[in-house]
Amino acid sequence: MKRFAKLIQQLELSNKTNDKIAALVDYFNYADDKDKIWVIALFTGKKPRRPIKSALIKYWAIEITQTPEWLFSESYSNVGDLSETIALLLPPAENTSDFQLHKWIEDLHDLEGKDDEAKKAFILNAWNTLETQERFIFNKLISGNFRIGVSNKMLVNALAKQSNLDSAQIMHSIMGKWNPYEITFSELINGVHVNTDNSWPYPFCLAYALEQEPEKLGDISDWQAEWKWDGIRGQIVKRNGELFIWSRGEELVTEQFPELHFLTDVLPDGVVLDGEILAVQDKQVLSFSTLQQRLNRKSISKKQLEEAPIGFFVYDILEYETVDFREQPLSERRKILEQLIGSLAESAVILSPVISCKNWDELAEQRKTSREINSEGIMLKKLSSHYHSGRKRGDWWKWKVNPYTVDAVMIYAQKGSGRRANFFTDYTFAVRDGENLVTIAKAYSGLTDKEIKEVNSFVTKNAIEKFGPVRTVKPELVFEIAFEGIAESKRHKAGLALRFPRILRWRKDKKAAEINTLEDLRQLLESTL
C-alpha cells in the first residue's frame, strides 16, 4: 500500500505526461504482480465492489474524531472529497501495516455479508495502521469512487515501456472482460486470454481535431470523408453464434438495443464492426436528446422503442472471417464492409455514407449542412490508414462545425476536487427570462489557471448565500458558453438542456444586462428542429 500511495502522490503532483509514465514504469518494475493487476483494474475502471456504504464511513469518522457534524460538513465542503476529508481528520496512526494493495482489496471483499460491527472493527483497525496518504487510498477503495488522471493510453504506454511489448497488443488485452481476482499480471499483458471470450472487442481508433486548413492535408483523393455522427460509439461483435455490443466506455450494452439483435442470425461468425449507435427513423438520424431516452435503461418500454428507435451506422470492419483486418488499409476494409452491409436488408444497420466531392472547397460547403442532418461535422480518414489503437496524428481527423454559443452570467459556484479542491471551479450559468435569471448550464472547463484564480477571488468576496458547498454569487461575471446542441428538457427549470456546455471565453467586455435571453435559446431550438 505504501508503494501505491507513493505512486498516486507522484501522479497527482505532476501535469507532465512523461513524468507520469516514468512513475508508472517505476511502479510496475518493483510492485508485487498481484498489486500490478489491481492498479491496472483500478485505472481502467474495474472497481472492487463496495462492501460498506459511504454514510457509515462518515458516521464512524465523526465518532472516532469527535468532530461535530457541522464542522465535518464544513471540512468536507472545503476539501471537496469525502475520502480525503476523513483521512485528514483522523488522529495519527498508533500502529503500522505492511499489507500490500491486493491484500487490502481482498480483505475488503471478505467483508461482504458481515454485520456492521464487524465492518466497523475492520475499518477502525485499518485507519489505525495507515498513514494519511494510505488512508486516503484505502477510503477510496471502500467508496468505489477511484478516479485518477491516467488515461488508458498513458497506462498502456507505461506497460509497453516496462515490458517491451507492443502497445497495441497490451491495449487489446486490457480491454473488455477480465477478472483481477483470477488472472495473473503476465497473463494479462501477454494477452493469453484474448479471443478465448467470444465477446472480446478491439481498442477503438480515435481521431484528432483538425487544427489546420484541410487543403494542407494534400490531395483530397487520398482521403475518405464521412459525416461525424453524434451518438454512442460502439462495436458489434459476432463470434460462434453469439452477438455482443460494446460501447466505447467498455460497457457491454447488448440488452439495451434489441433492434440490433437480428444480427445474430444474419452476420457471419468472426465479424467485428465499428460504428455509431444512434436514434434512427427511416434511415434518418434523430437528435441526441432522442437517443438519450434509450441510454442506461434496465428495461425498455414499447413507447421508448417507438419514440426512439435505434440504428447502427457502420464505419469500419475490424475482423472478418475471424481474421484481424486492422492492418489492412482503409480502402480495402471499406470494400469488404460495403459487400457485407450491402447484403443486409434491415434498415437498422446502415453503412455510413462516403461524402462525394471533387475538392476541399466543395467539401467545406457540404460541411455547412451538417446540423441539418444532426451531424457534428465531417470525419477525414486517410485511405491508406490502418485501424490503430487510440489516436495517431495524421491518419484520422475530425472537422467539426463551430459550436453554438450563448452569453450567460455566473450565479452559482462550487469548489472542485483533487488539485482544484481549494478553488471554486464548478460554475452554474443563467440567462435572462424577463426580469428573472434562469439557469441553463453548468460548466467547469475552459478557463486558464490565472482566470480560475481571478474567478475564485470574486466568488470569495461576492458570495451572497451558501447552500452546503454551493455559493450564490452576485450576477456580474459574463461568460460565452459553447455547446453542441439544444433540446427540450423537463428536468431543467428553463425547459431546455444544452449538449456539452463549456466555457469558451470570459466576456470581461460585457455586463450582465447584455446577456442572452431564454427566448433567444428557444428560437435557436426552433431553428434546429
In short:
With 529 residues, the chain is an alpha+beta fold. Helix 2 (17-30) crosses helix 10 (152-163).
3D architecture notes:
The structure is a single chain. This protein is of the alpha+beta class. It has 3 domains: 2-143, DNA ligase, ATP-dependent, N-terminal domain (DNA ligase i, domain 1, Orthogonal Bundle), CATH 1.10.3260; 205-400, D-amino Acid Aminotransferase, Chain A, domain 1, CATH 3.30.470.30; 404-528, Nucleic acid-binding proteins (OB fold (Dihydrolipoamide Acetyltransferase, E2P)), CATH 2.40.50.140. Helix content is 35%, strand content 24%. Strands 4, 5, 6, 7, 8, 9 and 10 form a 7-stranded mixed beta sheet that branches. Strands 14, 15, 16, 17, 18, 19 and 22 form a 7-stranded antiparallel beta sheet that branches. A 4-stranded mixed beta sheet has the order 2-13-11-3, with no helix packed on it. The radius of gyration is 26 Å and the shape is globular. The relative contact order is 0.09. The model has no long low-confidence stretch (mean pLDDT 88).
Task: Describe how the helices and strands are arranged.
Elements: H1 2-13, H2 17-30, H3 33-43, H4 54-65, H5 69-79, H6 82-89, H7 101-109, H8 116-127, H9 132-143, H10 152-163, H11 167-174, H12 185-189, E1 205-206, E2 208-209, E3 223-229, E4 232-239, E5 242-247, H13 263-266, E6 271-281, E7 284-285, H14 288-292, H15 302-307, E8 310-320, E9 323-324, H16 330-342, E10 349-351, H17 360-367, E11 375-382, E12 390-391, E13 396-400, E14 404-415, E15 424-433, E16 436-443, H18 449-462, E17 463-467, E18 470-473, E19 478-483, E20 485-488, E21 496-499, E22 502-506, H19 518-528
Parallel strand pairs: 1-12, 2-13, 8-10
Antiparallel strand pairs: 3-11, 4-5, 4-6, 6-7, 6-8, 8-9, 11-13, 14-15, 14-18, 14-19, 15-16, 17-18, 19-22, 20-21
